[in-house]
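Run: sequence + adenosine-5'-triphosphate -> complex structure.
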Amino acid sequence: MEGDDIVIRFERVSKSFGPLKVLDEVSFEVKRGTAFCILGRSGTGKSVTVKSLIGLVRPDSGRIFVEGEEVSRLEGEALARLRRRMGFLFQYSALFDSITVGENVAFPLRRHTRLSEHEIERRVREKLERVGLAGIEDRMPDEISGGMRKRVGLARALVLNPSVLLVDEPSSGLDPLTAAEIDDLLLDLKLREKTTLVVVTHNIPSARKIGDELAMLHEGRILARGRPEELERSEHAMVREFMKTQGGT
Amino acid sequence: MPVSKKVTLAVFLGGAFLLFTLGLFLIGDRRMMFERSIELRTEYRQLSGLKVGSKVLVSGMDAGEVLAIDVPGGPDGRFQVRFRVLEKFRPVLRSDSVATIQMDGLVGNKVLQIGAGTPQGRELEPGDLIASREPVEISDLIKEAVETVQYARGSVADVREAIDGAVDMFEQLTRNASDIVQEVGKDVKEISEAGRQATGDVRDLVAGVKAGRGSLGKLITDDALYERIRGTVGEAERVAGNLREISDDAKAITEELKSAGLAAKFDRVVSNAADAAEKGKRLVQGLLPERKGEGGLSTDLRETVANANKAMSDFAENMEALKRNWFFRGFFNQRGFFDLDAVSVADYQAGRFAPDRVPERHWLHRSELFMTGADGAEELSPDGRRKLDEVAAELLRQARNNPLMIEGYASAGAAHEQILASLARAAAVRDYLLKRYPFQRNYVGVMPMGAVASSDPSGAPWDGVSVVLYLPRETGRGR
Amino acid sequence: MVTAALAQAGDMLLFAARALRDVWRRPWEGAEIARQILEVGWRSLPLITAAGFAVGVVMSMHTRASLERFGAEAMIPAGLALALIKETGPLVTGLLFSGRVGAGIGAELGAMRVTEQIDALESLAVDSFKYLVVTRVVACVVAMPLLTTVTNFAGIIGGFVAETAVSGMSFALYFDRAFSLINFSDYVPSTLKTCVFGFIIATVSAYLGYNTRGGTAGVGQASTRAVVLSSILLILSNVVLVKMILFFFPSR
Ligand SMILES: Nc1ncnc2c1ncn2[C@@H]1O[C@H](COP(=O)(O)OP(=O)(O)OP(=O)(O)O)[C@@H](O)[C@H]1O
Ligand SMILES: [Mg+2]
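>> structure
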């Protein structure tokens, strides 16, 4: 292990919902400035994994470290402090539907910074431009499409310039061109701003493009883990099949 | 938050809060909290329900409230009532103002009424003590009246006895004297008659108070009536005292005559007796309303009682309406009010009417009561009326506030004829009783029983009427 | 079944206790509280005013019908105002409020729960309990007595309109009589007790919404149950409150 360089560490994490064992002693780590892609079929616990990284889901056993803090034990203000350095894109965007798109993106700024109204507006515009949605600040979330919502969610997750970004299926529901733009954005964040990325995706080409390391979740365990070309040569037929798919959601 | 929203918020919070404060102000204003006032005191042995917070009126105008009531240190001390009166009433309040406790309207709240003083009195300073008149409990007043009248009656009886004795003794001695004495005897009878009537009036009044309670608030606070009753009682007392004296004289004379036969003193007795008779006559004239000429005490009293009766019957009507109201029905039933019209024959026969009361029965046979009238229908015969008068006299002693059920019985004819005939009989009796005697209409019901085996010793179906008075268990002596 | 109900009751009590505790903790969430007061208070005004007015009219008619028999029409304003301020106003306001606001809170928080908006708040380092629950509790506790006051006055004015239509009584005389029987001890505790109503409505509804499970159907259920449960608890708590008020401010 290379000490400081490891930003995220999952240590033998197990999680069950009732009788259903979703994670079974899962372990992995992510280095600073790299992208970790979680693959896997529907319902295998990908979302549960990223949610537990930000403390929304508490593991039954095992430990989770982010930036040296044990997330699974943090409470209150300490947890909030850590979360302020992390961004999270929900699989279904989870925009606040009672306020405008612009207010959604501005929300973290208003809560956690003392920026001027003008500066807030500027940053909101900048982030929205970055996800390709300039000029929709005044629309309500239910007036825009699912793909747009997803990108607004991403803009909101990015607005505090987090050092760790967790994204749950960033390109699902997007057209291939926009999806590619999002991939470029994530790549840019990783390379230029040294943001650590955890990306849940079904999209193998984009995983190849962004991911430094890929992990395949299956039946509560990591079936295979490594660089894309390593997974292609995996001993598991299913992993190899998975890696052959193109596009996807 | 945009400015417009902030304004709305301020309007909402401020407006509603102002409204709340307005409420506080209105209450405070009504309680006269924002006006200068002085504190005064008065004392009472009997508070009659006056409380801290009770209103204080000055000559009938809202003027303050009772602040505190201090309990006396011992049983013979008096309650200290401290109260607040608005400064502006000071000019009318004087050291000779008198505080009375009075009833405030229908609700029956007690208020402290301060009468204005006279110009001769000095103006009051804060903390001054005002004289009080103890509240008159109408029940005490009436008890007193009844006692006095009874006393008067007793005296009258004594006088009559004594004088009758004297008459017996001297009848032979002088025809003239005997005439006078006889006249005295007659007058004395009249006095006693008047006494009885007064007692009846008073009893009516008491019963009215019992029946009407709150409605008589006006009566209680009616000073005029109070004074009138007081006056009558005083008069009766005086006459009674007078008569007692005469009777003592007469007794003494009888004694003397028995021992010595002193005819000399007889003249004095006779003239005394004549004098007393004259006085008695005057009293009787006052008491008996039938006499022509000016009203007299009794007429006034009677009028007042009649007014009170009227007020009470108005009130009774209201109560009646209230009792019929489904919401209050249970309340009234529990308190022994009866909705006689609502009792079905079946329920009645099953004994479900007033099961907690004891019936007092008067069986009256058809032959005693009815005769066949000109049109062939049954009507009350003169004998029957007399019979009913007797029964009524008996009932009146206990009838007030106790339900009176007139059961009709008829055994002739088909079933429906029996019912109709029994209803007609009961109704005839009720109408007669209600027309002649002061039974309370709503306490008198009719119940067509048809042909029912009576509890009469023979056990045969009764033919006629049974007048049943339902008495509370303690006083009942059922037959 | 019974244990589940008891467990939920206990849960709810903890939830309420947490709300009480967190009110005093930073951050105060002032802006959000203000927004909620506008939402639950200001926007309830039309409903509350109309209902209060109508209740006043109806009560006036009933009071008249009863008091007329005793020839005590003069007591109508006082009787109506006393009944309204002591009990009818607070209770009617509470029930209407639980209908409008309780359902709203239950549905809104429920929807936020099932669409992960509550999780999103958490992920943005916001204490969702403080931000969503405590603010609403405070808003309801503040709004209830104010709305009750509005109901009371709307009711008295409704009573006046009904009364003046029948007897032509003047506004000044009506108001003077209306407040003639009322004491501070009738007015202040009865109005302030509605803070408790507000607290109950807000915590019960927020509890049900905040813990919604089962998607859209769950949201509907949370909303319905919020109204039912908060109304019944409100009525029950009223019994206790009235007893307490009578204990501390015995009617003289
Ligand atoms: N709060 C929860 N309560 C009960 N079960 C849950 C909960 N969250 C997740 N699960 C269960 O855990 C399993 C994993 O869910 P998760 O959302 O992580 O799947 P996923 O891998 O993200 O699937 P998808 O690709 O469809 O998003 C699912 O079977 C789901 O039913
Ligand atoms: Mg998922």
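>> summary
Residues A 46-47, 91, 168 surround magnesium ion (ligand 2) (CB under 6 Å). The CA atoms of residues 38 and 146 of chain B lie 44 Å apart.
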